[in-house]
Amino acid sequence: MAKFVKMATLEELPVGGAKEVEFEGRIYALFNVDGEIKAIDGICPHQGGPLADGPLQGTKVGCPWHGWQFDVCTGQSPLGPKIKIPVFGVKVDGEDVYVDVP
């Protein structure tokens, strides 16, 4: 069953923007990709870099520590099919951004 939690407002996530949010011990990275909000696991699996601090180019974010990239829509890395991070459902209600947390 979906458990959507408010994590941001649209004002906090302008187009091309990102935000890191901690909820119940997990770090989430939220991105505004051309007006569509995406949410992924906020920690790079390589060495724990903060993905919300990385550069966003199109739908790909790069880890600011070592450059590993992930698609914010699918969680997939171009480095190989086994390198993938969790992606979370998002819904926007008015100005509020909710993320489907596990």
Q: What number of structural domains do the residues give?
A: 1
Please give the CATH class.
Mainly Beta
Distance between the termini: 9 Å
Assembly state of the chains shown: single chain
Strand-residue proportion: over 45%
The CATH architecture classification is 3-layer Sandwich
Q: Count of DSSP helices?
A: 0
Shape: globular
Radius of gyration, rounded?
A: 13 Å
Number of strands: 12
SS content category: mainly beta
Q: Helicity, in percent?
A: under 10%
Lateral arrangement of strands in the main beta sheet: 2-3-4-10
Low-pLDDT regions: none
- CATH level 3 topology: Rieske Iron-sulfur Protein
Overall mean pLDDT: 96
Structural description of this entry:
It is a single chain. The protein is an all-beta fold and 102 residues long. It has a single domain, classed as Rieske [2Fe-2S] iron-sulphur domain (Rieske Iron-sulfur Protein, 3-layer Sandwich), CATH 2.102.10. The protein contains no helices and twelve strands.
Summarize this structure briefly:
Helix content is 0%, strand content 51%. The protein contains no helices and twelve strands.
List the helices and strands and how they pair.
Layout: E1 4-9, E2 18-23, E3 26-33, E4 36-41, E5 56-57, E6 60-62, E7 69-71, E8 76-77, E9 80-84, E10 87-88, E11 90-93, E12 96-100
Antiparallel strand pairs: 1-12, 2-3, 3-4, 4-10, 5-6, 6-7, 8-9, 11-12
